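Weekly modeling sync, notes
Attendees: S.R. (lead), two postdocs, one rotation student

Agenda item 3: backlog of single-chain predictions. S.R. asked that every request posted to the team notebook include the full sequence so nobody has to chase files. The rotation student volunteered to paste the first one in as an example of the format we agreed on. Action items at the bottom.

Example entry:
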Amino acid sequence: MKNNRRKNWWMYLIRGILFIIVAVLIFRNPLASLISLTAVIGFLTILAGAIFIAGSITVRKIYDKWGWTLALGILDVLLGGALLFYPALTAPALVILIGVWTVAIGLMESGLSFGLKKLRFKRWWTLLIMGLLSILFGEIIIFKPLVGALSVTIFMGMQFMFYGSYLIAKGFQKEEIPTPTPMPIKE
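Predicted structure, as returned to the notebook:
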């Protein structure tokens, strides 16, 4: 079997470097990164709202409750507009929303852990610990929004740094990719 050297190693390297540059920028100015994240979420919310509006209009003749979908789309567009055009004002609200969401996830994980205990799962308590930690982290975000905002952006920066490092390492791998060969035909 003939092997080809991997020709696209440089794509991994460039992407990895770009991810690490973004991570450094996040670490240098976490507040600006949070505001940028808020704007991106605003844009995506506007896009989702526009899809809901278009979808509700297309089904209005066959779906009696299409007005609810239209209302949801309009609310999404309004919320997205506020996030996109006023990110410095709406970023704190986004942080609080992340905190509430984290507490809700923690409560669900804690409840699920007791269900696993009833089913006699041996490590049910690990999900309980994760749930309690989620609740604690969510409460920190809610009651100390500045700490929450910084932790959200720092975790985002760490993720970009780790992923960039992975891509760079992948770019320097010397693995060979086998060339596919046709299966022999049995006679």
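Discussion: group reviewed the output briefly. Helices lie at 9-28, 30-58, 66-85, 87-118, 124-143, 145-172.
Action items: rotation student to repeat for the remaining queue; S.R. to check formatting next week.
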